[in-house]
Design brief:
By secondary structure, this protein is mainly α. It is built from six helices and no strands. 81% of the residues lie in helices and 0% in strands.
């Protein structure tokens, strides 16, 4: 049981670190963030709104009682990011070698695993 607890905390921390790192670029209006959200047609409100949603996700995912909600929110945000890369931005964005796309995939997969872990709670929410 101890090993699985460490595993799931590691997943939560991976999500939190990736999202917090990207918040800096969103909230400081870096050129890359402005370019991304302009290409999506939602600059500046989309950039700021998604940044706030990601910040909420970080808090929710790190609190054990609310980690399911954080993981669900993280899944939703990352589906949007993945689709944006696949259909608008491209996988390799501004010569980053696909780094942003890969980070979105990692975050999405970590969130999915956390949601699956809590599948009983998810079913209770749906009932």
């Amino acid at each position: 049981m101890m090993k699985s607890g460490v595993f799931f905390w590691t997943l939560r921390l991976i999500v939190a670190v990736i999202l917090v790192q990207t918040l800096y670029f969103k909230f400081t209006a870096s050129d890359e963030s402005i370019y991304i959200f302009s290409a999506l047609g939602i600059e500046p409100y989309g950039r700021i709104g998604i940044g706030i949603a990601e910040l909420i996700t970080v808090f929710l995912i790190l609190i054990p009682r609310t980690s399911l909600f954080g993981a669900l929110l993280g899944c939703g945000i990352m589906v949007g990011a993945i689709f944006a890369h696949l259909f608008v931005l491209g996988i390799g964005f501004k010569n980053d070698g696909g780094t942003l796309f890969i980070l979105a995939l990692i975050t999405f997969l970590c969130c999915v695993i956390l949601v699956i872990k809590e599948k009983n709670k998810v079913m209770n929410l749906l009932n």
